[in-house]
Amino acid sequence: MFAIIKTGGKQYKVAANDIIRIEKLVAASGDVVEFTEILMMGQGNSVKVGAPFVANAKVSATVIDQIRDDKVIVFKKKRRHNYRRKNGHRQYLTIVKITDILADGATSKVKPSSEKAKVLMEEKKEASKEATKKASPKTEAKTAGLVKKVEPKSKIKAEPSVKKSASKAKKTAKE
Q1: Domain boundaries, given as residue ranges, for the chain
Q2: What single-letter DSSP state applies at residue 167?
Q3: Tens of pLDDT, residues 80-139
Q4: CA distance 86 to 80
Q5: What does R_g of the chain's alpha carbons equal in angstroms?
Q6: What distance in Å separates the CA atoms of residue 116 and residue 90, rounded to the nearest whole number?
Q7: In the chain, count of helices (H) and strands (E)?
């Protein structure tokens, strides 16, 4: 069975156990992602074409790794104008392995990562709450009022420079 999926503004023809490199997805390695934008799917002679997408079809995949592609050099030049610009670009990619192609609302063997992500987010929130409860000794001392604030020293007025006093003396001598 094959399917044509749309992700990251591109289309990919996939089959079960294929490993593809797609535009970056927000998922950690080992997470399961589901693609619902299926343009076409088929097996043998039977083919379903979506208008624009096939109804109740899903492709589930497992994230293997997050990588960056090879560097692409972007060089711009306008002749006879001394204009040259050189830039490099490395695209972020996600490597995924297609696990299932599901048609007509069939259920996947692997749970989607959205449930897993919710659990991870709740654990992070609880950990951050516990971290804020455990304050450092410095912050405890500040809140208890044990640390005294030192007031800045009063500003000392500088004496006028010798040059200014000499110029005043000359003016008074002339008068």
Answers
A1: 2-77+85-112
A2: H
A3: 999 999 999 999 999 999 999 998 766 666 665 555 555 555 666 676 666 666 655 555
A4: 17
A5: 34
A6: 30
A7: 3, 10
